[in-house]
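Lab notes, practical 5.
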Amino acid sequence: MTFLLVFLLNVFRAVTSHYEGDKVFRIEIDSAKQLTDISQFIIHTQNTLDYWSTELHPGGHVDVRIPRNSLYTLADPLLNGTRISIKIEDVGTFLKQSLPTERRRDRQKRAGNKVSGDQDEAHTKRYKYTTYNSGAAIQRELYRLANQFDNITKLISVGTTFHNRPIIVMEISGTNRTGQVPLVWIDAGLHAREWITVASCMTLIRTLLEGYGSNARITEMLNNVKFAIQPLANPDGYAYSWNTERLWRKNRSPTNIAWCRGVDLNRNFDINFGGTGASDMSCSEVYAGPNAFSESESQAIARYLASVRHKLMGYFSLHSYGQMWLTPLSYTRKRVSDRGAHMQVAQHATQSIKESSGVGYTYGPATALMYVTSGDSSDWVYTKLNCSHTYGIELGDNGRYGFILPPSYILPTGRDALTGILAAVDVIRENGFVIESRQERRKRKRKFY
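Output from the prediction step:
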């Protein structure tokens, strides 16, 4: 019965991918009893409803998009007595009003040319930092920046997607460094619909590049720390979100069910794979895949990070939304031994953002602020690569727009992300980080993915 319901909902979504009549509701959690009931409600509906934000603790809330033909689910007895409000009255109308002009033109052009939603147009406009851009425009901009700042950048293709798009990492390091320097990783866009993460990451990249030699803090940082930045971790999913289905979350790999494509890349890492918070149903938004590292995108991240693990000082993964700085771990509520160091870093990072822009971020263990999940990239890096400082950063906003954040938020959100990450790296450096020697690396020779 559940399988049939998932099938019908996905067929309906495929036919009416503009989300007319869908609503986004906020369900408040006011007590421990409601937390238990709402958690059970999520377990029962995670394969049929689209959860946007889940802050599972008393005082938290759940944001969920419910298709117009599924509004009856709110009558579930598990939700009796809960406070429920509407955040977005009509998702389809809201999307039409908020889509950037370039994206609307692309869709009209594609309709005329009968181009598949998984394909890119042959010609793209120049990248604009004040709006959202297509995946093809992002790739072109990365090559342009690498050419303009060729003395401090290096572009690396670390793999290819199912649709043969390159998975690109930009390395940035100063020209005055001596010997090996520690490395900081930043990725964005693991979930395709989280456009603000990709646009903010591009803003972050440009700020670092333009600041080298003109901004004392950035110059000092890049002379002593290498940054490896992956602004588009899910190129296929992002392209499909841009071209066809704005709220698409997963990548675009085929699954065992022809009409249900894609794997949730942030459930595909080899850490408690397939456990709580992930699904083995391929139609689910949190489908973990047939096995750990089944996807080329997660393999690419793992392969690169495993190759630099001896000097990996910090891992930062940009997501949206909720304005939270999440510390390890996500798959278990067990307290990690270095939580004190994590909280020090997170406190300093969020305080720096607050002082810089006035935007408030909460911080703490992922399981305390959100929920338990499995196969998470940050958890894999922390556990398997022995990198203590791994953080998930949920960018803005707090739910007014959710994933459909207006372009006016791009530049300030990008500045906040960079402010927080630089502040975090400052604390990590102050506390001391030692690059692993070649002898130590020989002792640890093993495959990580």
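Observations recorded by the TA: Confidence is low (pLDDT under 50) at residues 11-16. The chain is about 35% helix and 15% strand.
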